[in-house]
Amino acid sequence: MTVEISTPLTEEKVKDLKAGDKVLLSGVLYTSRDAAHKRMVEQLEKGGELPFDVKDSVIYYVGPSPAKEGEIIGSAGPTTSYRMDPYAPYLLDRGLKGMIGKGDRSKDVIESMIKNKAVYFAAVGGAAALLADKIKKVEVIAYDDLGTEAVRKMEVKDLPVVVVIDSEGNNLYETEKNKYKII
To answer: Catalytic annotation on 37?
Structure first.
């Protein structure tokens, strides 16, 4: 079964998502990778503001390649998420409800997800050109000097993702590995 969800990603929407659910996500997402995450957390620690309202938002861990002529964005596949783990709890505590990437998350991030009722989606690595087709509008909103790692506001339509870790901490990376353990 595939669930269609639009942003904002409210707590009400998050609580119904379970690990293993296939989702077509539409609406506004923000992009950010480790360099931008570091900057955002540094701004918060200095009493500053984030470059976007993180409440009920989704961050896609992506550094898109440059757009070809006539395109709005280049390939836009997910990056490995663990590099954002030192920073994710800061954003989750401020209302972030969803993250999209690939790879497992740390215990601290999962605990923060449970506490803050958030979800982690995986996008399929290696399908960057296909994923880019789901992006309908994009603009750099912060840290332009970071190039592909700048923070972008994107509008997506039916971006295919899978709930890998739900708001209760159920984790496909653990449950699926356990199915194939040799006793």
So the answer is: yes
